[in-house]
Known about the structure:
By secondary structure, the protein is an alpha/beta fold. 38% of the residues lie in helices and 13% in strands.
Amino acid sequence: MSEDPNVIPVFQPVIGEDTLKAVSDAFDVGWLGMGAATAAFEQGISERIGAGDRQVVATNTGTSALHVAVAVAGIGPGDEVIVPSFNFVADHQAISAEGASPVFCDIREDNLGIDVDAAEALISERTKAIMPLHFAGVPCDLDRVYALAEAHGLRVIEDATHAFGTVYGDKTIGGFGDLTCFSFDPVKIITSIDGGAVVFPAGNEPEHARHLRLLGIDKDTELRYQNKRAWDYDVVSRGFRYHLTNINASIGLSQLARVDEFIGARQSSCQLYNELLSGVPEIRTPETDFEGISPFIYTIRVLDGRREALIEHLRANGIATGIHFMPAHSYTYYRVCRRGDMTVTERLSSQILTLPLHSEMTRGTVAFISDTIRDFMTP
Ligand SMILES: *Cc1c(COP(=O)(O)O)cnc(C)c1O
């Protein structure tokens, strides 16, 4: 939502009467903390992605989901995790939080996901995991990521914070593989205001994750899921305060009920952008038809070095834009990390531009934004 009602914002969460009712119903239950709604949200996520015997553990942010995944994978001081620099710093901080080091890897031009050949060249004795991102909801080369991980005995921590609902082959992201992390923050495709989840393979890692999620306290998840708690608990591990409340989970559940509607609407807007921007000089649209994609953001590339001028032109016409992402290896804290060649990352991060994409957006708005870009770029 924008401060200025005359500006088309980059993000515009849909908070309908259904969500408001879910909140007031959750307050009526009177159990505000983690509880039965949290369990129901985990179940709903599991069903939507076809998790089967994989287990969903909800957290209070996507960042804490990534941190829990890193910790449960046993990644610690001295270890390295290969991750794109072209990413949100939450991923890098989740690695740093465990005393491990991100090793920055370049991306591919076509899907803006990790370059698996470049990742392979970065593997060292210290490498423990690879952390690919499904940028903008478009899957990275997952088959190749898993083949590489298997060949070198690495864990895979998928950053699927952009890709809730994206289909890969005949499965949904998170429904297969190793560790998958989602975010339900205010601007993601569905929101619980703040929230996240890790999907684990069947086994005993989910139990470890539940301990990490709530201060190392045992028994807690089981009882709280019945809106109860025990006072004779034991503390069995280190832990954080990362659990998701009933109020947040209820919001998430109301949004989950509409996710297919949101995905469909966003796919249509992205397809229309692709069509209306095709052939605009010096503009490159995403190399996907958005079938099977759950689009988080819609990005274009401005090839002629006039991105900043285009941003100004759009601003002057009441259109906000964003930049996803600045490369992490350019930040003060991460400048010192080991990295590979960053040619594509550096080129992309100087060209990329995020246009407004909302779950409720008219074709007229997409046409207005596209026309404004075409007018500026056409000599
Ligand atoms: C949103 C996001 C996260 C973190 O999620 P939060 O819920 O905001 O903590 C991590 N990585 C990427 C790429 C994201 O877009």
